[in-house]
Request: fold
Amino acid sequence: LVQTMIDGVNTLYKEDLEWQKKYFEFPEIKSTHSLVAKHVTKERYEKLAKHCTGTSGFTLYKAIACAVEFDNQHCGIYAGDWDSYKDFADVFDPIIQEYHGISADAKHTSDMDFEKISGNVNKDAPVHSTRIRVGRSIDGFGLSPGITREQRVGVEKLFSSACKKFPEELAGEYYPLTGMDEKVRQQLVDDHFLFMSGDRNLQVAGMERDWPEGRGIFHNKEKTFLVWVNEEDQLRIISMEKGGDVLGVFKRLAKGIKAVGDSVKEESGKDFC
Reply:
């Protein structure tokens, strides 16, 4: 028994050293032409490698996993939660600035006021369909690459309750992927609404952990307003319809974003972040 204990401790210690070597030592970045290769220097990595974010315990190694694993990444980094942008700012700030071509003091603005839009696509233009979508995240939960299992289930539970409060135009049904009825699954496939697993990039980034738990799809009765829950975004909000009525699709999207935000706020007291 004593020998077993000694051998066990030594094995755990060896595994711990190997773990530290993998995650704390500066890794080989296979995507040599990526923004990660340019901005994640050895000095910056060693400064930040041992830090874990407060919301989801995310690390810099997890953030750059795709650039380490693959040789074809342009950017190569994912945030695991809101904290990542702040805690790993030495890396995220220059990458974001170069990727978007913005200055260090640039501010993001969002304007969803459809009243400011005049005109529309010519009704005679041969437009088959129109789709506009956005991602939204709820404060206090990790983003897809870092979100914990409990947080992911929490997002789903919060949304599945909040969506029952949507106004008539947006009202519909939420379909969780876990335990989905085959008829429902096939209909979602036929409608081209169903998102699937198997993307290697998403897997390495950590986005397909615990699949399919905590994930699902909402759509209204007319199938013109959809929300994907816990795919690449916590909430991917989509407005779509046949034809080229871009203004109408944008109006519905703006109303939908507000309805989701208001319902989540009413349900939990949480805002989008």
